[in-house]
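User: Structure tokens for this complex, please. No commentary.
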Amino acid sequence: MAVLARASADALRPHCVGLPPHTRLRGPEIGLVMLRGRMGGDGAPFNLTEATATRCTVDMAGRMGHATVLGRDQEQAERAAMLDAALQDPVLRPALLARVIAPLAAEQAERRARDARRAEATRVQFFTMATMR
Amino acid sequence: MTPGFAEPVLGAQSSFRAMLHALSHPGRIVELPDVPQAPAPLGPAMAALALALCDADTPLWHDGGAAVTDWLRFHTGAPLTEAHAARFLLASGAPPALASLALGSDEAPQDGATLLLQVTALEPVDGWRLSGPGIETSTSLRVSGAPPGFVAERAALAALFPRGLDIMLCAGRHIVGLPRTTNIRDWR
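Assistant:
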């Protein structure tokens, strides 16, 4: 689901061809979710900000697929929900995992590693005399 | 699982408006413009009112079984509770004893529950004779499939006014409002 939620509608569209027909149970609808953070990663929780999110739930042959994605792309939410429902089908699941999820996950990991590399190159180590002693 | 309203906002608004209309003209049969397909035994009108009225802040009771529980949880997010604690009750069969439900208090009569009651048919012909606020002289209403003893049980609550119970009768796509101020006399 995390992989589907991060993939764009353009990336998901070709994989939705040939899926069983679906009906929309809810949405796609746009709303706000409150993001919470913790000071220093383990402190008291606080409300960081609200983020726009789009959610969708579909029914595909009796299986419910859910998706909540960041942003306002309703097509992305619906296609992610369709694939979520299809992935629960034991017949379709192995093919979808290999054909859709694995490449998307690899691409997202690659992008994250690339961003991390670029950020790492500009890292500045702060230190004071006290910490050097 | 079936979808809720085709247009969630417009569907809920039009159902709410229809319910206001029904409660301001007790005994008048009002058709709901937009109803969802709900799992049995939830009728279309009752399902529409449930979607329009219930959310996470309204404890809900129903007698519809697991499919209805799933449907209401998914579409309304309302917490399910015991009958005496519920703000809204959906009764597709015989409702719990009316006097055992939340009737509000003298200081806060608005805390009384609202009972949505499924009946077989509603016709504007002789059967019950209704009078009270919102009715100029009297209104005739024939209700098929009301639980036995319903009129007497409801009349017993009148002495508690302003505490009481507001009731919506639902049949197919049609509803009838019976606020706590309406008197019912059974003429049959």
